[in-house]
Amino acid sequence: MKILVINGPNLNFLGIREPDIYGKNTYCDLCEMINEAAKDRNVDVTIFQSNHEGDIVDKIQWAYFHKIDGIVINPAAYTHTSVAILDALKAVNIPAVEVHISDVDSREDFRQISYVGKYCFARIAGEGFEGYVHAMDEIINKLK
Hints:
- This protein has 144 residues and is an alpha/beta fold.
- The chain has one domain: Rossmann fold (3-Layer(aba) Sandwich), CATH 3.40.50.9100.
- The chain contains 5 helices and 5 strands; from the N terminus they run βααβαβαββα.
- It has helices at residues 19-22, 27-40, 53-65, 83-92, 130-143, and strands spanning 2-7, 44-49, 70-74, 96-100, 122-125.
- It has a 5-stranded parallel beta sheet, sandwiched between helices.
- 35% of the residues are buried.
C-alpha cells in the first residue's frame, strides 16, 4: 500500500511556530514518526511539504500517476481557503483523510470552514502528531 502525506504552509516551522499550540517537536520529528509508523504497517509512505498552493495541487496530481492508494493531508491554512486543493482531490479520486495537529474546532471562527473536508472521508484534529498515524490507520482500514 502506498500513502502520500501532504503538509501545507508553515508546518515546516513546527517546534518554532506557536509551540503553545503545536508543541515543541520539529517537522523532522513528525516525519520520523510517520516513517516509523508506516514501516510498522508495511506501508510505502511519501511525505511532502510546501508553502505553495500550486505545489500541493501538483503533488496531488502526481499521486494519481504514481498509483498512490491514499492521501493524508494537513492543508494547514489552505484548509479554509483552497478550492483548488479540493478540486485536485476530487479530480484524482484517491481516498483522503484531513488531519490537523491542533483542535481547530476550538480555535478562531474562520478555522471552522474546511474546503478540503468536503472531499475527505474522515477528519482528525487535536491529536497532535499522533493524528497522522490515526489518519494512516483510517486509510488502511478503508482499503482493506
